[in-house]
Amino acid sequence: MPDRKLVPDIVKEQAVLTMPERASVRSAADIMTKRNVGAVLIAERERLRGIFTERDMVKRVVAVGLDPLTTRLVDVMTPNPLTLPPDATAIQALKLMQSRNIRHLPLVADDVIVGIVSIRDLFDVVTSNLENLVAKYENIMFGIGRSR
């Protein structure tokens, strides 16, 4: 896993969900629900301006009693979020996410949005790698698959 690049090893053929700053929280919630994602990137002409996550919705909208129909994303998004280049490794993404307590990282190259990686994406990679390691060591230890 340490040498697996975010693009193309983990993020493949992704249709990045972006919305304009003026969009409402309600419209973001609707599309996030339909796409089953936990974050939307706020962009203007493919340039990242911010990120709006489920956590932002809870802390910055619901918990303070704002109206999702009239509240604009620009007012509750995380502006200028941390990003990684698409050639960053999975382990770099995991370390950054852990140190900053975040669950989504936009991938940006030359100021253009390339994709987004989530902790769920990285968990899938870690799980797959662990399963492969266990199978490998079971084979070594118990001779599974060897002829007797």
Per CATH, the superfamily is: CBS-domain
Largest sheet: 4 strands, mixed
Task: Estimate percent helicity.
Answer: 40-55%
Low-confidence stretches: none
- Tally of individual domains: 1
Specify the overall morphology: elongated
Provide mean pLDDT, rounded.
Answer: 89
Strand content: 15-25%
- How would you spell out the order of helices and strands? HEHEEHHEHEEH
How many DSSP E strands? 6
> How many DSSP H or I helices?
6
CATH topology: CBS-domain
Outline the structure in words.
There is one protein chain. The chain is of the alpha+beta class and 148 residues long. It has a single domain, classed as CBS-domain (Roll). The protein is built from 6 helices and 6 strands. The strands form 2 sheets. It has a 4-stranded mixed β-sheet with strand order 1-2-3-4. Strands 5-6 form a two-stranded antiparallel ribbon. A hairpin with a 2-residue loop joins strand 5 (104-109) and strand 6. The model has no long low-confidence stretch (mean pLDDT 89).
Write the layout of secondary structure elements.
Layout: H1 6-10, E1 18-19, H2 25-35, E2 39-44, E3 47-53, H3 54-62, H4 73-76, E4 78-79, H5 90-100, E5 104-109, E6 112-118, H6 119-142
Parallel strand pairs: 1-2
Antiparallel strand pairs: 2-3, 3-4, 5-6
Short description:
By secondary structure, the chain is an alpha+beta fold.
